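Students often ask why we bother encoding 3D structure as a string. The short answer is that it lets us treat folding as translation between two languages. Here is a chain of 589 residues written in the first language.
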Amino acid sequence: MAEVAAIHWFRKGLRVHDNGALLRAAEGAARVYPLFIIDPHFANPDVVGVRRYSFLLESLRDLDNTLQVRFNSRLFVARGKPEEVLPELTQRWKVSKITFEHDTEPYAVRRDGDIRKLFASTPTLAHVSLHSVYGHTLWNPHEIIKINRGSPPVSYTTFLQIAGSMPEPAHYADPERLPTNLAHFSEAEFSVPTLTEMGYPENPPSYNPKYPGGETFGLARMRKYIARDVWIQKFEKPNTSPNSLEPSTTVLSPYLKFGCLSARLFLRELRRVCAGHPHTRPPVSLEGQLMWREFFYTSSVGTPNFDRMVGNPRCRQIPWDTDPALLAAWTNAKTGYPFIDAIMTQLREEGWIHHLARHAVACFLTRGDLWQSWEAGARVFDRWLLDSDWALNNANWQWLSCSCFYYQYFRCYSPIAFGKKTDPEGDYIKKYLPILRRFPKKYIFQPWEAPLDVQRASGCIIGKDYPRPIVEHATISKANMTRMAAAYAAARPDARDESNSEGGDSGDEGGDGGSRSGGASARGGGRGRGGSSARGRGRGRGAGVAAAAATPTPAPATASTPAPVAVARVGQTKRSASVAEMLTKKKRE
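And here it is in the second language, the structure alphabet:
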């Protein structure tokens, strides 16, 4: 019998630990070729920002080093379209087995399907066996959908009930050996490229590798937090700070996004630390963040056109405006609201922002102030976030725009009061917007209200050195609630709609990847009631999340009020109040 040569095709699972597909490649193989293909579909500086691409390259170098040190192997990094690279290397290395981690994103599903068809239809490749193993999620999302009678769960609560019936997620041992014919390795052909070679600046402005990529760093960061057992047991996501100068959460989401850290390993460690001790529970616990991640992945798998409004059967069809100037101001931290602009500056400079900060800027761009499409915001996050994840990013933007998952549009983040709650001195603003650092704290969140002599003394003239607000929040947010009510009334929700009032997040622990996707991402307990937990704790209304009313169902329309919209959910008592009444019940920022 001819000896077996195998390729393990790394894609997201950039790790050796808990890698079932890599273990499958090693089984019975005399030679194993660890391979990563730089796909031009993703290698685009206009789409993927420099920090995330740098994180990827760092992860590849770290993986290559691990393979060298532990297995006397190398990571073969090839460039080109996978459907062209794989057949060529398969024949060059006389490979009879290819393994890879299953990927649920639409592009990956099409790509993998095309490759399977290509191999099956090509006589010189038809003998090659292709094996995919689930490893990026805790469970196979299709199994969850099957249990839920063919559709993804609409609510997080329903998802948790199904997850509770699932077996413990699989866990795989590290391979004992990865024998590789290093004579086939050439630095010129297969080494990890530099940023410059990929079309990026080698040292971008303000570049600070605060979160270096790779399995080594992901495992070290996880162990650092796992050692804080009491902190883990008491962790409640809504009680973390969106504008602390150092992260108040784990920032493990980039490592989970690239698969440098196994979500299954993280879950197992969390459960070990919490076993036998009082501890918080989903949705606000750290385990809850992984469940938000799983919930959103399952939703993305079972929902057509999940990354867009049109053709997405679960997404509210809202007539968003398209104003490139407003979008550019938000993207480039020029809105005139220091809290919002500081968050967007941190996003650009570090590639990460807290999940509640994601909430604030996403609400501001969409339903809160600028009335721009969540799809536009998702594209910006997708470019700049280290942890941007297709499923989590799109899910969280739908959530925060009240397009899906969450429908309490009358709860709106204030771009002024929300940041003041956790940072009354404005230190976060001073760090990321140094032009404002000399403003007294009385004016740091609203510098346009400072008298001209104060502005001069602070070295910053509003309207010249820093922009005036591009909209008046107190006025526009009320107008947008009326527009949202009209949009809801024009298209009644599906009968299965349920509001996830527990709170979700693109999360920094794993549910992120967007607005949090992601983040946050990726996400427990940040959204419900404006950032409060399911048990009513956390920030809630006192955090600058203005709630227009305690009851969500407007009364029938009159000449002066918009059409009604039913948003009462399962278990709620349906009562009526007009949008106008809701807006006058609570003083808004």
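Translate back mentally: The longest helix spans residues 50-71. Keep this in mind for the problem set.
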